[in-house]
Structures are given as C-alpha cells and as structure tokens.
Design a protein that fits this description.
Helix content is 68%, strand content 0%. It is mainly alpha-helical. 51% of the residues are buried. The chain is globular.
C-alpha cells in the first residue's frame, strides 16, 4: 500500500511540475480566470459520474477550502509581495504536512528522519526557487502572511483528506467545479475581462486535464492510502521537476546553485520516504471507486 500511495503522489507531483511549462502561454491572462477555467475543465474528468459527487456538506466544504482557499490566498499573496518570495513561502506546505501530521493524523509520530528530510527538502526548494538570492522586506509582510496562510491551507486540507469518511474519488470533480466557479466569481470581481486566443484555450484545457484537475484526483488517493509524512517529504521534488522541465523546454538553465538544490531535495526525499517503518498510525478506509 505505501508503494501505491507514493506512485499516486508521484503522479500528482509530476503533473504539478508541468504547471510552469504548460502555463507559459497563459501568463498574460488574469490568474483567477486561468484557475477558474482550468478547475472547471478538471471537473469534466468525472462528469460522467455526476451522482458520485453527492457527498456530505462537511466533505464538500473541506474540498472547497482546499482547492479554492489555497489559490485565493496564493494569488492575493502574489499581488502583495514579490512572486519569488511568495512562491518560496508557499513551498512551506510539504514541511507543514510533515510537522502537522501528529496533530491531525491519529497515531502519527515524527522522528528525526521525517524532520531532517523535510527540512533538507525546504532548503533545496528555497535555493531552486530563489536562485540563492532572497530578500524579505517589511513592506511586503501582508503578502508573505498570505503565502504562508496558503501553505497552511494546502497542508491541512491534504491531512484532512485522510480523516474524512470514505467518499468516491470521482467526487473530487465536484470540488473542482465549485472551486472553479468561485474563482471565476473572483475574476469577475477583481480582474479585467479575459480574451484568450485559441491557443490559450487549448492550454487552459491541458491545464485542467493535468496539473489543475487530474493531479487532485491522484493527490486524494495518495493521502487516503499513504503516510502523509513520507508524501510531504516527496513533495519537494515538485519545484525540482518543474525546473528540469523548464530547462528541457528551453525556458530555463541549470547553474551550480540549482545543482546543490537538486542534491538537497533528492537527499531529503530519500531520507523522508525510504526505510520508514509503520508506527501504528491509523489509516482510513480506502476511497470508494
């Protein structure tokens, strides 16, 4: 079961890593519009199983809390703080998943390998996101706070997924639709009207099928089946894979700092995910298919 959960998590991480490359053609579109359309497209992945979207109100609320709440806070963080610093603080979420596991997962405990692996991953992510150059200015404190809040929302949402009563994985489509519609409402309220080109519509569809849709279905399965401490450590490979995809597509380049970051991230992921023994943490029943 741990191997299956890490495969599901790896699939979600691989799709999220493609976000920067796939989103290159949508950079001039309003962000809430991009997220809203992409999430609505993502919901279509299980539209044929619409009846399975009917879940308890608490489950639906937690789904919207995670998918919409995270993006809402993150995009306003980008408005109020430089993108690099906001993105770096956002990458606290894998570390928070590890550190908050004992509080939200019955029976889960932390050991030095969990903490060290997650910490190395964060240091590596900090280097690869910032390029070794980082300044935190007091004037951007509201934006920094929102970025940290976004990380906290995604971490707690991820941990709560494993504690919810079993629900069909296809119900994630309902989470996507509600969150997408809320994002489009934010677009109408806070952003100028968007006029995507045909190529951009195509890119929005790919985003919805992949990192802004399909990834969430895989993520739910991973957290339902696996150990969040291991998955949190593994998640720091997201910025690493994203950077490598940008390099492969000609939109980025590697340097000595990136090489050091790769070593730290891979070392942290291996330390946090390999060689762990079950410690009695209670696991919920698998999602209904």
């Amino acid at each position: 079961m741990p191997t299956r959960s890490l495969l599901f998590a790896g699939g979600a991480i691989a799709l999220w890593a493609s976000l920067a490359t796939l989103g290159a053609l949508t950079r001039n579109l309003p962000p809430f519009f991009v997220v809203g359309v992409s999430l609505c497209v993502g919901s279509l992945l299980t539209a044929s199983r619409l009846r399975t979207w009917r879940v308890p109100a608490k489950t639906l609320a937690i789904g919207a809390y995670g998918l919409f709440g995270y993006h809402f806070l993150l995009f306003f963080a980008f408005r109020l703080a430089p993108a690099m610093e906001a993105n770096l603080l956002n990458y606290l979420w894998p570390l928070l998943i590890v550190l908050l596991s004992p509080a939200l997962i019955p029976g889960a405990r932390l050991n030095s390998r969990h903490i060290l692996g997650a910490s190395l991953g964060f240091i590596g992510a900090a280097l690869i996101v910032s390029g070794g150059e980082l300044t935190l200015a007091r004037e951007y404190l509201p934006g920094y706070a929102l970025a940290i809040a976004a990380a906290l929302v995604w971490a707690t949402f991820s941990l709560l997924l494993g504690r919810l009563p079993a629900f069909p994985n296809s119900a994630i489509g309902g989470f996507c639709l509600i969150s997408g519609l809320l994002s489009l409402l934010c677009h109408a309220a806070f952003e100028p009207a968007a006029q995507p080109s045909p190529a951009q519509w195509g890119m929005l569809a790919l985003l919805g099928l992949g990192p802004m849709g399909g990834a969430f279905f895989l993520w739910e399965r991973a957290l339902r089946l696996g150990d969040p401490r291991q998955i949190g450590s593994l998640s720091y490979t997201t910025p690493l894979l994203s950077t490598l995809l940008l390099v492969a597509s000609g939109q980025g380049q590697l340097n000595p700092i990136a090489a050091l970051a790769i070593g730290l991230i891979l070392g942290g992921a291996l330390l946090g995910t390999l060689g762990q023994r079950p410690d009695g943490a209670a696991r919920k029943t698998q999602s209904a298919v």
